[in-house]
Amino acid sequence: MPYRRRSYPNINIEVFIHKVDGLSDDYKLDIQRDITIRIQDDLSDHGFENAPVTFHLTSIYNHSIFEAFSKVIQKLIPQLGTLEAMLTNLCRTCRFEKAYLFDVLSKIYIATDSAAADMAAYEICSDYIDVIIDITDVYGSWNRSDAQRQRIEGEPWNAKVEDQVACNWAESCMVLHDAGRPIMLREVDRYLALVAIMKEDSYDRMPLVNMNVEAVVQGLTEFFDITKPRGEGQARRI
């Protein structure tokens, strides 16, 4: 580790304290405190005071490992502040409790709003993505009858199905979980999805919510088009 610090002075050091699922909360904190002291003392002995070391308590039996990797990945995104600002404005405008920008395949979120971290909210959104993927794998896409299209495109939406989606191959999805709060999933591109936990009264304001979500999705699409490396080919659809 000292060698890495000399060669890469701006490196972020991430320590994963694994297999803590069977321990009590107090014991977890004691272990983390002990490991933190040992590593910081070792770095100090080699002349590195206050090294940027972050510690994560993880387990494969819950979502903590994905939460930890999400925080690691976010440190590697130069434009993270812009993404967080967009999601924070969306939560404030639509009165969302929490919003995440997920990498669908890995279940890692690359950005979230400025509200305090909520592991339960993250687990709900992550599991919801799994449900949508499973349903898509089983049923795939389907052709709607004329009557169904009229019902979807009628009140209160008053818009064609094609205009209610984030892109040509993805649809907006919604479900109510046990607490009565709607969950919204909106695909941004082939790999990213915007997932948000709404408040109960947000369901009555869906036309306005859909309009704001559409604006954010369009902004995210333009953002990634601008920041995409030049010469990058068309991404393969999964």
From TrEMBL:
Any Gene Ontology biological process: cellular response to starvation
Single GO MF descriptor: GTPase activity
Keywords carried by this UniProt record: GTP-binding, Nucleotide-binding
Recorded GO CC terms: fungal-type vacuole membrane; Gtr1-Gtr2 GTPase complex; nucleus
Domain of life: Eukaryota
InterPro entries: Gtr1_RagA (IPR006762), P-loop_NTPase (IPR027417)
Similarity comment text for this entry: Belongs to the GTR/RAG GTP-binding protein family.
Record function comment: GTPase involved in activation of the TORC1 signaling pathway, which promotes growth and represses autophagy in nutrient-rich conditions.
Subunit structure: Component of the GSE complex.
UniProt protein name: GTP-binding protein
Native organism: Verticillium longisporum
